[in-house]
Predict the structure.
Amino acid sequence: MSIIESIYHIEEAKFGIDMQAEAKTLSDGALSVLAYEEEVSDELRAILMAELQSRPESFVILTSNMLHEAGTSGYMGWNRKQLAALGIQWPPPKRWLKSLEGKKITRDAWNRFLAARKHNQNQPR
């Protein structure tokens, strides 16, 4: 059981907080990151994904700055999963970053990109 899940279960038992109702208060990004967390149970993942999928789809317009800030190593560096979330093949072709500037992607694709960054940061170097 993850720390996040433990907190939810404690709050649910102690205060009668409903996890489904609580999920509605989270941002799309938080829902996505939590849903892709490896330690989250299938039950909580299903609740988070259901909430995320129930929201109207929104879009993100990519900028160079956004992509750099979401890199895996400080201001730069991206992993295979991140680029796959943006539709870029591995190894990335020349000028791939330039090709993404101004591109409109779904919020879900952006959230997968961010979740993949977090996954990579937890890996031993």
